[in-house]
Every structure is written in structure tokens, then in C-alpha cells.
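INTERNAL AUDIT FORM
Audit reference: QA-55
Scope: verify that the stored structure record matches its stored sequence.
Auditor: D.O.
Record contents follow.
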Amino acid sequence: MIQLGKTSTLEVVKQVPFGYYLNALELGQVLLPNKLAPKSCQIGDQVEVFLHLDSEDQILATTRMPKAQVGQFASLKVVSTSRFGAFLDWGLDKDLLLPFAEQEKPLEVGNYVLVYIHINHADDRIVASAKLNKFVDKAPAFYNEGEQVDLLIAGRTDLGYKAIINGAHWGVLYKDEVFQILKPGYKTKGYIKRMRSDDKIDLQLTRGTKDELDSQSLSIMIKLQQAGGFLPLTDKTDAEVIYQTLAMSKKAFKKCIGGLYKQQKIDIQTTGIRLIED
């Protein structure tokens, strides 16, 4: 189905001095201006385009792709404000409106804001909303524990960080398991830690698999070699210090040094870990 605010592959059906008309089926013929058309464009060609509204609210095609489409969440920069709301840079010539009524807090030029892009059915225009909870799926989710998912960080809470899972559901990363700053709009891979009985979803950034632990153990060995064979880190060291030094959680660090000790690659001392020379 061909939709406003999304990409479609459409056939070129007519050429005019100022561009090409594409067959958008139920939306009719839409204009692709010359400056946005592929070189050597001809009647009969199939062209991938994004459909949006021009300044006169006419449907227009462009080969320039936006930073996000209708039905997606994205972190976008405020480039101007007016009595209607804030205007966001979403990669097209015409900026995206975030109406005042859809803002969670006052915005200034230069701010980044996490929004959901949708069609305002009152006037059929593409707009943004920062009221994310209206657009996150409230139906029970069906994920498997340990399943890898795409995460979009939405913000901090008392528990840690709220994240949107696969562009659909809310999940939580707990602060005692995250040892890096996660800003709203940051995208990363994560894992389903637990599907709770209250339909909430606990997340984690790593699974602690053997491959991950092997990679982290190798990282510790490299850091030891770079530091002259000794690191002042123990199982009593603050978790943030461990993360800043090794980019891993304290839990992973303790597992790794335990394994390296058994392999007789390191010596665990009261003040730190020391590399055992061959």
C-alpha cells in the first residue's frame, strides 16, 4: 500500500519540463521535480521515492530520504520555533512540525528531542509528537528471554533507563547494570533479560555468553600488557572505575578475572591483578 510519509517504488508515467509524474495509485499522480529525479530518468522507470507534502500541502515525491518516516521514532534537532510549535530537521527541505500540544517541555533551537512521526488526521499533515507513550504498543509483547533486540533510549528514570524495543514496546535497563551514559535517541543492540508477570520487560546490554566473556578476557589481557603488567582493579573496586578502565560491568570483570586466574594467566592480588609472564 502506497502511503504518505513513507517510501515507495513508483513508475514514471509522464515527463514535463519541470519534472516527472509518478503513478502513486490511489494517491494519484505525484510530481518528482527535476532537481530530485535520478539522472537519465525515463518513462517506465521504477523509482524509489519518499512521499511528503510541499509548502502548499500537495503530495510531492523526493529521492532524498528523511531521517525517519511515519510510524517511526527518531531523535531530531530543533532548527526553529514559531507560534505553531518547534520545527525539526528531518533531512528534507521542509522541516517537520512538532506542535506545542505535542511537546513534553519547552524547546529551544539546538535542542534534540525524541519524537514519533505520524499523520495528524485532523488535516492529514505529517507531524511529530514528543508524547511517546501514546504511540508505544500497550498490548502484551512476546519476546524470548535472551533474544537480541533493537533499543532506542528514551530517557532516565529512578530505576535506570527507559528504552523502546524494536520500535514498539517499553523496556527498562537497570542503572546498576549500566555503566555508561545513555542519552535519549541513542540506538544500540540489547537483549531481553526477563518477561515479567506484570507485562513489563527487563533489558540488558550484554548476555554474558562465552563469546562475550572471551572477548572481554582478551581485552583485560591487552590492557594489562599496555599498563606494564598490572592494573589496580579488584572485586572491591567501584563498578564505575571498572567500566571507565575496561568498558565492562563489574559482574563481567569478576567472571573474566576468575577465568584468567584458573588459566594461570593472571595473579589476583589484594591491590589489583598482575599479568603472569610466560
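Auditor finding: record pair retrieved intact. The mean pLDDT is 93.
Action required: none
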